[in-house]
Amino acid sequence: MSVARANPPSATPSSATLRQQVYAQLRSAIEQGRWPAGMRLPPSRAHAGLLGVSRNTVLWAVQRLLAEGYVQARVGDGTYVAQALAKHGVGAPSNAQLHAPALVAPPRGLSRRGQLVADTAARWRPPLVAARAFRMGAPEVASFPFAVWDRLARQASQAQRAARAHYLDPAGDPDLRQAVAQWLWASRGIRCDAAQVVVCSGSQQGIDLIARLLLDVGEEVLVEDPCYPGIRASLLGHGALARPVPLDASGLCIAQGAAQWPAARMAVVTPTHQFPTGVRMDLPRRQALLQWARDHDAWVVEDDYDGEFQYGNAAQRVPALCSLPGSERVLYVGTFSKTLHPGMRLGFVVVPPALVEAFAMARAITDRHAPGDAQAVLARFIAEGHLLRHLRRMRELYLHRQQLLIGTLADASDGHWQLPASDRGMHLLHEVPTDTDDEPLARSAQAAGVMLVPLSRYAIHSPRRGWLLGYAGYGDEEIRAAARVVGALAGR
Fold this sequence. Notes:
Blueprint: H1 18-31, H2 44-51, H3 55-68, E1 71-74, E2 78-81, H4 95-99, H5 112-119, H6 146-154, H7 158-164, H8 174-188, E3 197-200, H9 202-214, E4 220-225, H10 229-237, E5 241-248, E6 251-252, H11 254-260, E7 266-269, H12 283-296, E8 299-303, E9 330-335, E10 347-350, H13 356-367, H14 372-383, H15 386-412, E11 427-432, H16 439-447, E12 453-454, E13 465-470, H17 476-490
Parallel strand pairs: 4-5, 4-7, 7-8, 8-9
Antiparallel strand pairs: 1-2, 3-10, 5-6, 9-10, 11-13, 12-13
């Protein structure tokens, strides 16, 4: 059964919650005839996976439709669009609708591909509010050496500033590409030529370029389950089919993924610190993934979003997947949004030499190139050792904040929440049994001013449940206060 798509959630008021948006989509699909009277609704779990939301979100929306008479539940047989609606002309599609494709451009005039992009709003919305504990992915910004950055910027001559005011190479400033290549070799063990580095506006644009250039509509991509919804949204926005693959203690279960989705052309992974579970992909699994790519003539995308934050002895830090022998089919995506700050909007992709020109042209078509001044200052910031010194300070600070979070939350919850310590990353996961509903506590925390994201929001088919707590970007007192809120709520 094909599932008709309703208008994108962006058509609903911005204040609407995610479940209200899903409800509005389903009701619109019924009222406009895309879901005709008598049609059986998809199973809630499968429908949640299609929309990229939790099953509870879909169940809430369906329950509301049931209360309003739009649908009817048949015991043991599922839920159907109410037959009585046809008498009133609701849910009765016209001849044009009966023969129209499932994906129909809305009145605003979006193309089918444009509608795919708009539909991603149901799966992922970038946060627009200021970061507060325990939102994920927020680095420490107040400690960034702005004075050093400003001094480097002022040292540029008038001629240099004038040269950067012109149109520049879309692949990036040559000095920055060279600095990144040298940094990757020193910090992540990746040997690459500077010409292979394509500068972009953060990892999200890097994923977008990869999907646009290497995937055709309808091609399958293996993604981790749970995973970062921004990756999945980008793939789906380009018409690719994101195929969920479960995780175990060794990382992505590539053998299971290959067996279930034999036609997959790409795998997107976070092997150093899996997002969001924190699992590190071990060496045998990495080698199996690279072998799969060779055997299937497929690509592997390595999103190394926080690989620089590994705590402890430098000799014990895990190198990047891209540094292993046989990694010729790996595209490495890096970002300075975590190592420095998100407002910089600079990242990069390391691509095979044969693809550099295509990636540069795709970047040129999108937004021509990154700001020249910012690229030049970052190149010097790296080359003169400021990035290394900043990361050393942040590693010490983040490890302290992680330990503070663990201890404070254990005390505040009377020992009920014992977060496992981690030797990497910027967040922790408190996992609970799969039959736990992790949404209510998240909503209560939100009402109390604390961002506590449930693991279920990152799951596609995975039954794993729990809560994620980012700690890197928050001061000691904010961590203590937020931990006391969560501890009190968890102890109810």
